[in-house]
Amino acid sequence: MSLRLSTVILPVDRWHEGGRAKWQRAEELGFHAAYTYDHLSWRSFRDGPWFGAVPTLTAAAIVTQRMRLGTLVTSPNFRHPVTLAKELISLDDISGGRITLGIGAGGNGFDATTLLRGDEQPWTPRERADRFGEFVPLLDGLLREPAGLTREGAFYAATAARNVPGCAQLPRLPFAVAATGPRGLTLAAQYGQAWVTTGDPKLYEAGSAAESLDAVRGQVARLGKACAENDRDVDELDKILLTGFTPEFNPDLAGGRGGPFTSVDAFVDFVGRYAELGFTEIVIHAPVPDGSPGFSAAVADEELFERIVTQGLTQLAG
Questions:
Q1: How many CB atoms lie within 10 A of CB 236?
Q2: Contact 287, 298 (CB under 8 A)
């Protein structure tokens, strides 16, 4: 599989005040795909604009023609498989079959707490994994069986759920499963057309680039083991690295200032190390508006961002 470069566009711009232009520019730059986050809000952006993923992707589908579109990632935190399936088949139809669903178990933060009542507590990691383990197979069935599906589990149920005419992509749109633990990796092996990682989050604060690379190497090995246990060729899965969350991007670590976004050469060196591990898609964040404290994962300079895109892959290909 050849190495592809994609981007994440955070849903922070009003559509007619820069949002539309960002998605169109991403396609002009030649990105393989443009994703957005599927959160109710996120980190330091909580007190500013933050728009919904599905309407944003719908609008993006209308103003682009070739580039793939999707989420990185959707989770069960505030989604139900039945309603999500209906939105996905609509998105896939509007885009002409260009949607990839990035999907993960979810985490802490606003997604986990906004819908709680009274003394309710957020799901524990184990509870999130339990729900994810039921969410993915049900969503898979809903998208593969548009004429009607009935299924009842511990957390989710569908009764004669119909999704006619089904996805534009057959047998369904692709899943990119974000996972590092054994249960999630098994789901990636069973249901994924791609696997997503951000590295080891524990190393971002106090790790090194070498430790991070070694940790991801271990994740790739465990993915291979999960695939073997499920009679799946690991080479069938695209391997996606969402950048910005490894130690190289932490400005507080020694040697981390600027990181892979210091220059095109620094970016190419960074990407090359992960390409050697078998990654097929590298995802970088599009520049965010000024005044976004606490977010160092994006290229700060628009001109450098475009040079990384236009020159970086040329160097890698050479």
A1: 12
A2: yes
